[in-house]
Each structure stands twice: as C-alpha cells, then as structure tokens.
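STRUCTURE:
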C-alpha cells in the first residue's frame, strides 16, 4: 500500500520529496501502526548526521568557484592544452569538465557553469548546436564521479561507507570516461573532417603542460619531503602552498590554483589531516582565498548572494534526504526491502546477474527521480543484497552514482537535459536527440566500471 500511495502522489505531479513524506504520513494514519509524530522524528534523525554537514560546504565551495571567474580560467587552460587537436573545442569541453568536476561536485553545476561558455564558443567556431550540447551533456556527468562529489557524500552516509574511499574510487573511472569521450570527439572530427580550433604553438602548449606538471608534482613533492626527510607535515604544506602562490604570480598560470582544490581535498583525507566534512570547509576557505584575495573577482555583495543560493540549494537537498529517510524506514518496517531481497536472491545468487539487473533498475529510476532522492530510496533496498552477495559497497556506490548521472540526460526528469536545452535555446526533443550518440561512451564506461571492480577499488585499497 505504501508504494501505491507514493506512485499515486507522484502521478499527480507532486514533487518527489513531498510524495515520499506524504505517502508515509497517510500510511501511518491509515494503519495506525505508529503515531504520526514518527514521521517528523524520523525525518529529523535522517539529517542529524555529521557527514551530511559536508553537503552545504561543498555546495558553497562550488558556488564560490563558479562565481569567481574560475570557469574562464579553466576554459583557457583546456584550450591551450588540447584546443590544437582535430575537433579541438570538443576535447576542450571534456578536459574543462574534468577540471571543473574537481570543484563543483554536481553535474548540473558543470552543465550550467562551463556549459554556457563552451556551447557559445563551439557555435562561434562553426560546430553544430547539437554536437556542442551532446558533448557538454556527456562531460557534465563527470561532475559527481571525479571528487569531490555530493552524491558520494549522500551514498556514504546512507550505506555507512567511507566518503574518502568513494572519492578515491572515482578518480580512475573518471579518467576512463574522459578518455572514451575524447575518443568519441576524435571519431566525429575524423568523420566530418574537422580541423583544429587554435593554432599549435609550442610556448602555449608548453605552459599548459607545465601547469599540469605542477599540479601532479606538488603533492608528490610534499609527500616526499614529509616521508623521506621527515619534515613537519603542516609546515611543509604551508611552505609548499606559499611557493605555489609565488610561482602562480611569476608565471601567470591560468588554472593551477583552482585545480589544486581536489588535490588538497583528497590529500588531506588520505593522510588523515581532516575528515570529508572538514575537507568541505577547507575547500570553502580555499575558494574564498582565491576569489577575494588572489584573483579579487568576488566582493561582499556577491558573497551574500552566493550564500543565499547555497542555503536554498541545501534546503532542497536536505528536505529530499529527510523525506527519503522516513520513506526508506517505512519500506524496511513494512518488510518491503526484505521481500525484494528474498525475491532477488531467489532469482539469482550470482553477483554479475544482480549487477546487470541493478543497472537496468537504476537507469530506469534515474530517468524519473533526482539523484539524491534515488540514492536514499535505493540504498536500503539494494545494499543489503550487495552485502549478501559479497559485492564491495564502494564499488557499488560508484556504479549507482554513474547510473543516476546517465539518468540526468533523459526525459522526463533529466535536469541536465533541461538546463542545456535552456542554455542552447533548443527544444527538449532536439536536445534529447543530440545526447543519444553520447550514450555509447557513457554506457561503455558503465559496463567496464561494473564488471572490472579493480579499476574502482585499486586506489581506495592503496590508501584506506
């Protein structure tokens, strides 16, 4: 009956979060199995979690980066690095999303932030609007895969899994997805005989490569000093950051300091300097330093607006989590999750078959539910089955998030689809058709990530 009430409310056009809470409340009134006050109690306890404190801070950090002129720097860095290749701006789109993913943590922020710049630039260089929208939509899915990631925080809290492990697990799959997308761009460039979009110039390319080397070499150098020379960790990091700011001033780097956001975040978590929640606060501090004091692109009035936008977004996310908490608890209390688990285990005991069925289910659910709501509903149902079948929950978390990100590209509820349709001034039908060819690299990545768990788990096992 609970499921029927939920579906009836959903079919009436009621928002998902209100449908979940409303169905639970009506069910309790109808059956009188528990006092209605249980709904409020379970909703409050569902968001009374220390790891969830990371959510507003990651949202704030992403908003600060997005409003501090960082997107233009990322675009120029990617243009210098790969713009000289055939189909250059397509490759720029992918590389830019890889970098921006390390700051925003959401697909929608990636699509709305970089997407506005990239689609306009691609149209100005003669690319079709459909191709520009397709590659932008596909690359936006990297936002929640490459750390930091808001869906990983929600999943980690719901499944009782280390958020730091989830962040590390997303690095190699994110690189795989980016490579497959760039291969797809190269295919279209060869098919349509596209050339490059900027002239190959050694100084420009060398500077971009030097920035990449600095970002890769900085954490290695710090780790080497702390490990081999046994220098004080905090002092070493502060001195190394000071040298980084000096180098940025001398060489006028485009994106070294913004790209350092995920490096500092993951480095701090893997070395135990801070928890993911504290890391989210550190990311906000880093964004404030860059926006207010280094690039001087933020001012107090803009900061107040960013904070208000963050409060609005956080309230939406937290209400979804709270509503899904009572709904998930009701599913468990009424035996729905146990019944589903018994049915699935009676149907198959083989992990690969379960993963196939779970992928189909999550792809379907992702087309209708916002990722936060989908995670909070699916985790209580699917995680117990994973535990019985011996499937690693870090691996399954990445599979779940990728499925739901692909769902964001589809009607009827695909938020990235609607954002890009508005940005590109295309109809939803044309936007959907533009995205379809890009499902091949995304689904190819999903298959590899699902059935090659070592790709996902190698880094987490190294550090955790």
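SEQUENCE:
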């Amino acid at each position: 009956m609970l499921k029927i009430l939920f579906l009836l409310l959903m079919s009436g056009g009621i928002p998902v979060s209100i449908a979940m809470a409303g169905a639970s409340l009506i069910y309790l009134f109808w059956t009188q199995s528990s006092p209605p006050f249980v709904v409020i109690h379970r909703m409050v306890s569902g968001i009374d979690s220390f790891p969830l404190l990371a959510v507003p801070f990651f949202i704030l950090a992403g908003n600060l980066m997005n409003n501090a002129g960082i997107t233009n720097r990322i675009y120029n860095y990617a243009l210098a690095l790969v713009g000289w290749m055939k189909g250059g701006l397509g490759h720029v789109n992918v590389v830019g999303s890889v970098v921006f993913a390390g700051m925003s943590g959401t697909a929608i922020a990636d699509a709305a932030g970089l997407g506005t710049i990239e689609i306009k630039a691609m149209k100005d260089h003669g690319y079709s609007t459909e191709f520009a929208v397709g590659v932008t939509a596909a690359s936006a899915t990297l936002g929640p895969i490459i750390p930091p990631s808001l869906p990983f925080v929600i999943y980690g809290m719901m499944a009782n899994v280390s958020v730091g492990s989830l962040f590390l697990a997303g690095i190699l799959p994110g690189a795989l997805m980016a490579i497959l997308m760039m291969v797809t761009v190269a295919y279209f460039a060869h098919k349509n005989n596209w050339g490059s979009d900027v002239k190959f110039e050694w100084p420009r390319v060398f500077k971009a490569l030097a920035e990449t080397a600095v970002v890769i070499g900085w954490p290695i150098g710090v780790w080497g000093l702390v490990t081999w020379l046994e220098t004080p960790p905090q002092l070493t990091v502060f001195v190394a950051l000071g040298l980084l700011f000096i180098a940025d001033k001398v060489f006028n780097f485009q994106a070294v300091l913004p790209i350092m956001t995920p490096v500092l975040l993951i480095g701090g978590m893997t070395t135990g300097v801070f928890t993911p929640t504290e890391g989210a606060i550190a990311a906000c501090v880093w964004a404030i330093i860059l926006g207010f004091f280094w690039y001087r692109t933020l001012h107090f009035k803009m900061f107040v607006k960013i904070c208000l936008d963050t409060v609005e977004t956080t309230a939406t996310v937290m209400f979804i989590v709270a509503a899904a908490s009572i709904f998930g608890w009701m599913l468990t209390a009424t035996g729905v999750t146990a019944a589903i688990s018994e049915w699935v285990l009676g149907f198959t005991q083989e992990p690969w078959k379960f993963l196939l069925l779970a992928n189909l289910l999550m792809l379907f659910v992702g087309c209708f539910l916002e990722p936060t709501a989908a995670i909070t509903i699916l985790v209580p149902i699917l995680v117990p089955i994973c535990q019985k079948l011996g499937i690693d929950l870090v691996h399954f978390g990445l599979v779940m998030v990728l499925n739901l990100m692909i769902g964001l590209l589809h009607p009827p509820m695909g938020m990235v689809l609607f954002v890009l349709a508005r940005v590109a001034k295309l109809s939803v039908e044309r936007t959907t058709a533009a995205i379809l060819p890009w499902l091949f690299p995304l689904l190819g990545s999903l298959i590899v990530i699902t059935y090659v768990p070592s790709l996902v788990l190698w880094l987490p096992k190294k550090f955790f």
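REMARK: The chain has one domain: 48-463.
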